[in-house]
């Protein structure tokens, strides 16, 4: 390849990549057709291999030429219907094309790379598809000589025979690069393409040995280029086709060889290669490679005579499903690097850009003339025109970077097919929205994350066929990969109908690996448990395989999507499947942004991350901004939004205010507080700034090496006044400040449901933890309240106690379990006494205390943590709702062991016990479900009486106890109990009623319909004791 310039080589590489672009999808389509092939589609793939082979021969790329030629032979058998393209054959062709692509990517080292396994496998296929008497032709070789008797080409007899089918002739053509090409103003590569347009190139060779060297002192005035060529054009007119003398064209073989050759030899004695010589070569100069011959013999045993092959010798896979080269390719060559720096643009788009550039020049000239004349009206008109043209030019330039997601979607049919074969599964992949366009940079960055997610769906999601059939599913699993536009973004969904993900299993794995604690898991909802899968090193795979299970990937997926400005969200239903949604900006180059400023510095926030803008009037600041635990929150339409001071998190200003006046840092000037509600992935929080400015389109510039590791910045931009403004990364800021936010979509759905169902009445006991930190517990759980002095507290054995009714009462502070404010042991204090598992214990608090009866919404997302069930708004103040049972169980787990062990004994004797929990409130249903399951029972949740009744009828033998709320939509607790007690199938079931407020009238009505027991909703101790008692009676 020493004589080849980069331009010629690059032209060949680009054309070869074009040919290979749709090979995978074409071969997979051919595989699906089986015997009923589409000949045009097979011809398309054949022509791709043929074109690559032809150019490779001319350029001296012998390894590429050989592999492409062997692929061509197999495709020729398929298109002649001598071979049925079964999955094994298509698999070998796919791997061969993979290797061919790798050779082209490493074009300058390709001749040193190994293709022996692929060549052997392809030869096995070719020989297996032939009648036995012709199979030897695959390994027999024929020397093709010139008039001097020098061997120019050595080819397989099979290739020579194939070349003459259909009445074709085989010619040996000799070109001279100097006289026949260069002096006629032709390019060698163009000549090769012209030859291919009228026939097929069997082989091609540039004979550099004939030129001579400086050492031997012999120089030739010509550079021979030999082409072994097959065509239907007859010998008497072949020389006119190529404008060559007759002596430079030799007939090797043809349909009527004997007659044609005798005529040619009568006219041209210089033609020495004839049919007789070919036959002599076949008889006397047969060569066979021993290793190849052995493998061909093995293949023969597996193939029936004169029939298409059903089994072939597979190519062994390396880590990339491709054989390794004998010597690893060096760093990417200049030729390969050019490909990454080029971008194809439609001609119409280029013409539009040229027109707009012309309009811009015209408008500039008009502006300059108007300025010279001092005409303000013309200046304004020209400026408006420039603004319009510039906007159109920007849009047109952006379009040059846009590419369809089909560019990456198209590789997944092959990925899924190979995985399905490897895993023994049947999987159908559906692609939707392949025409949706994204920026080239995003497309390139999206490839790896999407590949990982699709592989996960195939491996972890879709079950084996027998397992799917046992579940009543179609044995063929389905994966849908879909792209669509929504709200100025591109959304990509990966949806499967597999087994789904179990949030509890993910949480358990995270705890086992030490990524989170059990206490943290207890305070998580299902959504938060699912999101643990994005932690580094977490894997739920039971086995480590080549496909997955090594605990790497999902964290990298999220990290890569964060870099692209994307968001990822997971929805799953156990037994039904999983949907992963990705949201991406259309482009990263020019983005609409909101300008803000703090401490005199300007910053840009991408509009895609801005949810809304809020200005809190000065008169409402103290009511709407509060401190709960360690978090500052904004009360927005009944929702708690974590607050973050941009000046503080960026270190532009320090605050040393006391906790009692923490609001001052948000209201330093005494005026209104301006808040940007920022969307950080699936969370949102409030970003407090000094000023809100205009929304503008900015050009994104990468950060310099000194700043690129800063967590809170995504880039920089140059403003209209020439100053630089940093672009904020809202996800990075949230991480920097260690914010924990709310899942918006889930919470919106829950809030909407609660509004439809109405709020529930609760009686709560109110107290303070630290000053200004309001807390509440259900009043029914409080046994007694004691007012004490701090001096009365004693510390014995490392534990705090007070004298109480002739004994000692252990007391605890909320901060011992929950991450909230510190309670100072000074002055007047309150001890709230509870009875837990037969033990009296006290909770320290600060006065004042109060009891309220009100309809409240309990938010179990924003501030939930160990010991804290959630929060609510009482007396216009954010109040923490204390989970008193979780609090004391965390401190003293041994107190609760005895009954749990008794439950386990019952389970051993009578089997698993299922509790049907009927509760319309999401909050109470999740709370009660959790502590019943913690006790060792299986819980079946139902949101109203009708759902519960339907479940009972569908599963008549599963339920042991029914625990039901009273006030519910569709069917209340009284109606449900009446149906249960009147049914001969269910009348034996004990029914425990849950209520917030149980009046005497309700209790009497309950007894009439058959309710067996009444319990307060959050009185965990008594409810569990009631369930245990009923089950113990049944067991006895």
Automatic annotation (TrEMBL):
Domain Histidine kinase: 331-588
Enzyme class: transferase
Alphabetized UniProt keyword annotations: Kinase, Phosphoprotein, Transferase
Residues where 4-aspartylphosphate is found: 965
Pfam families on file: CheW (PF01584), H-kinase_dim (PF02895), HATPase_c (PF02518), Hpt (PF01627), Response_reg (PF00072)
Region Disordered, residue ranges: 255-332
Boundaries of every CheW-like domain copy: 590-739
Residues bearing PTM Phosphohistidine: 50
Residue span(s) of domain Response regulatory: 914-1032
GO CC terms, sorted: cytoplasm
Sequence ranges of Basic and acidic residues compositional bias: 281-301
Example GO BP: chemotaxis
Record carries keyword Lipid metabolism: no
Protein name, per record: histidine kinase
Bias type Acidic residues, positions: 264-280
Lineage, uppermost ranks: Bacteria, Pseudomonadati, Thermodesulfobacteriota, Desulfovibrionia, Desulfovibrionales
Reaction catalyzed: ATP + protein L-histidine = ADP + protein N-phospho-L-histidine
EC number in record: 2.7.13.3
Gene Ontology terms, MF aspect: phosphorelay sensor kinase activity
Segments forming domain HPt: 1-107
